[in-house]
């Protein structure tokens, strides 16, 4: 029997990692074995780890004891199958663990996708249980594997946020303030807002001084503000705060600056994952709330039809990816040691937004 390798992260101390070398699981009837070729490593992965207990991300690919297996968006190939519906050699895209391989259990199967039917995943958000079968897709999409892993999930989230704001008439906001706008989800949202002729709100991006030039090159903000200089934001205008940073003190400063003009406060990501979280109940203006993308997707599924918002978001994501591809250099990092190092670098904010990191264990 062969082996498999997984990179585990301490759920209570994200900087601590462990390479787990495990026996290969024999397949049961209906299961498939997928060799995971490459995964996009972004701030999304950190968000999954931070909310792993709250939302259940640790439960998708269970590890042992204090350890967790961080999931992410990746490409893989079927190398063994005991499923009548899925053949060896099929190419798949979806939610995978940081591992050399994984066993899946295709349930509901369509020509273009299947849903994993493993019992331990039944109560988890369906969005992450779907796997695209890429064999029948157009060639242009097949050629965008790296972008699909790195950018599409983030830009789909950007689109869902954009649609959420539109669906709520921007909560009456005259300006949209985006924290950590250099993050891919951040500048994706800014791009969608700035390029929609029906959106009249000002787009304000907050970033570090070192990332100002990068954000300026994307031409997606009406105003760029650096951390510590938040008073440059016009406090006389109503604002919706979309927080990609997860930085409690920053959220607190903005709420106290804007007061009752803070009409929406939406916590999305955690690029500043180790920052103090703040005391949301004590802040003036709208109470900060965690944005759960699958919740808004489910709302639109009911209104527009199953999968339509994901389809629209994927189209928008592909367009954004095309527009920013010249600004992001894709690099491949392989082996559990190299992946553990780049994981820590990302936690320590040492990875430039210009880098598109693809990993393989």
Low-confidence stretches: none
Topology-level CATH name of the largest domain: Quinone Oxidoreductase, Chain A, domain 1
Per CATH, which architecture of the largest domain? Alpha-Beta Complex
How large, in whole angstroms, is the Cα Rg? Answer: 20 Å
Number of domains: 2
Report helical residue fraction.
25-40%
The SSE order reads EEEHHEEEEEEEHHHEHEHEEHEEHHEHE
Shape: globular
CA-CA gap between termini: 19 Å
Taking the sheet with the most strands, its summary is:
9 strands, mixed
How much of the sequence lies in strands comes to: 25-35%
Chain-averaged pLDDT: 91
Notes on the protein architecture:
The structure is a single chain. The chain is 30% helix and 29% strand. The chain contains eleven helices and 18 strands. The protein has helices at residues 43-50, 52-55, 139-142, 145-150, 152-167, 184-194, 212-218, 248-258, 293-304, 308-324, 336-347; strands at residues 3-10, 13-23, 32-41, 67-68, 71-81, 91-97, 101-104, 106-109, 113-116, 130-133, 175-179, 202-207, 223-226, 239-243, 262-267, 289-290, 329-334, 355-360. Strands 3, 5, 6, 7, 8, 9, 10, 17 and 18 form a nine-stranded mixed beta sheet that branches. Strands 13-12-11-14-15-16 form a six-stranded parallel beta sheet, with helices on both faces. A three-stranded antiparallel beta sheet has the order 2-1-4, covered by helices on one side. The longest helix is centred in the last third of the chain and has 17 residues, at 308-324.
